[in-house]
Amino acid sequence: MSFNVIYYINIACPTIEKSLEMVDKYIAHGAKSLQIDLPSKNPYEETPLVKKMMLDSLDRNGDYDMYMDAVREIRRRHPDLELHVVVYTDVVDSIGIEKFVAFGKEIRVASFMIPFNRREIWEYIERSGIADMKVILNALPDDEIAAAVETCEKGYQSIVSLRNRKPGESDRPGCETWAGRYAYARRAGITAPIVSVFGIKTKEMLQEIKDSGADGAIIGNVLMNLWDDEPALWTLFDQFQSLYE
Asked: How do 158-163 and 216-219 pair as beta strands?
């Protein structure tokens, strides 16, 4: 695959109506791939911004059919969009795994990103013919690498997301850079597309990821934080897009 920028949008940032409006604008400005979430009661991997939006949204309405309908509306408006969905296991449990997988097939989801902690869920999704997006921490834990390699060896559809370093975290020795992490993942046997996620704030950071041999990147918070300042939003957005096109 060519280098692919996937833009992440919270489904209720700050409302579903606002998110749908911004989805349309992102696509009008050239976005070809989006990742949308369904709000979790325990979004432990998210930034403070996304945690607040998810929890505030669920306080207003905990009906997951409403959130799934919003994603269906995105698909209706944009039939050719590459559409990814990120969820936590509590969300899958609330919806029900069979209904959740049927929803993925209905919207022609490109991948479901689900935390590593519930193997039976992502294995069910893989067997259903839907690609999962496995998140691997920047320290490249052996169990997470092994799970991604196993998926590749079984021939299931998959994408691997390598997460950037968070404050207080350390790197695997010899893997202190994006290039080092990607090279390690490939040597370990991961043949699926690999994208970067977390903390990508500038064109220069995205250029480093592209130069490292990545297949793409996921960009979210830095743009959502600018939704009230659209001139600045589209200036930064266009800078990111310049490396994609």
From this structure: unpaired
Superfamily of domain 4-244: Aldolase class I (3.20.20.70)
Residues contacting 150, CB < 8 A, separation 6+: none
Question: Whole-angstrom Cα distance, residue 170 to residue 61?
Answer: 38
Q: What is the pTM of this model?
A: 0.95
Find residue 111's DSSP bridge partners: 84
The pLDDT-based confidence of 49 (bands split at 50, 70, 90) is confident
112-125 pLDDT, tens digit each = 999 877 889 989 99
pLDDT tens digits, 63-88: 999 999 999 999 999 999 999 999 99
Q: How far apart are the C-alpha atoms of 47 and 15, rounded to whole Å?
A: 18
Q: Which amino acid is at 118?
A: R
User: What is the rounded CA–CA span in Å between residue 244 and residue 237?
Assistant: 11
Q: Which residues contact 102 (CB under 8 A, 6 or more apart)?
A: none
The residue assigned the tokens 């997951």 is: 64
Residues in a beta bridge with 83: 34
